[in-house]
């Protein structure tokens, strides 16, 4: 393809993806399935890798999230809230593991976690009291949702120790709450939410905390900011520490060293995901050793020390099957 043709294709992909991002991040109402977005995003990434001189400043590969809600107050994130790299096959995951292990000088293992299908949030505590909640926003600036997070039962107002700290995690809507909410919306003649992720985002990014309170949102917390202040050296220890402080931490995380064990974990949750009471869209591998994470650092958009393996799309991601769900 001639350069001018590549530039045109890149411009078209950027325009289409940015329109979908506004629908998804800003309006909480996507018009296409994630798999369709991911397919075009990959095409754009491949073209940009082959032609780095044609990368546009407004390319979605250079930015986290979308425009912020103009009506919500803003909160800076001194430590940015980033996105995550992703792969779509076990073979790609094995290549990522191989490249990563070549770039580090000490042995590592991974904390393997479920990728919860919700939206990221940050919680700040002073002397053990919840003082601020915010969304990821564009990564550097989030939306202030302090009043709203105070309505979520799984978020402790007071920690078991009077510490100053920040944690991050995922806010999600359990499947049963999503089905009930959409039934209510349809009965009231309102537009139903496309999926539990968008229902969670729409419910958390509300001006009226009473609306959030009615929506049965839940959280799993998975990131401790500045873990070295608490002498914590692995992601697995960080999860245990946050659990002790009173946060709800997903119980399925496992430390794995080999690709065979990681593949088995992926296979288990590819088949068991329908039985969970919450949506997952993949699994996340995080280098368990926090000093190694710090040494690897981040690109402009994603940490180098973690990767998401995304599940293949289900027939219809919006169909929630009528099964017994366990937490
Ligand atoms: P992402 O959702 O693929 O991955 C990063 C996010 O994963 C984090 O911000 C965090 O919120 C979440 N996460 C869940 N469990 C986690 C765990 N255990 N540890 C760490 N993080 C965890 O990246 P993104 O930038 O938020 O969104 C990009 C994705 O959003 C796309 O791949 C696409 O699937 C979807 N999207 C869809 C549309 C659409 O129109 N359908 C538009 C834009 C984006």
Major sheet strand order: 2-11-10-3-9
Label the overall shape: globular
What small molecules are bound in this structure?
nicotinamide-adenine-dinucleotide
- In the predicted model, the low-confidence regions spanning at least 5 consecutive residues are 316-327
Q: What's the CATH C level of the largest domain?
A: Alpha Beta
Structural class: alpha+beta
Mean pLDDT: 94
Estimate the helix proportion, in percent. 25-40%
Explained architecture:
With 327 residues, the protein is an alpha+beta fold. The chain folds into two domains: 63 residues, Orthogonal Bundle (Helix Hairpins); 247 residues, DNA ligase/mRNA capping enzyme (D-amino Acid Aminotransferase, Chain A, domain 1), CATH 3.30.470.30. The protein contains ten helices and eleven strands. The longest helix is centred in the N-terminal third of the chain and has 24 residues. The site of nicotinamide-adenine-dinucleotide has 22 residues, from α1, α2, β3 and β4.
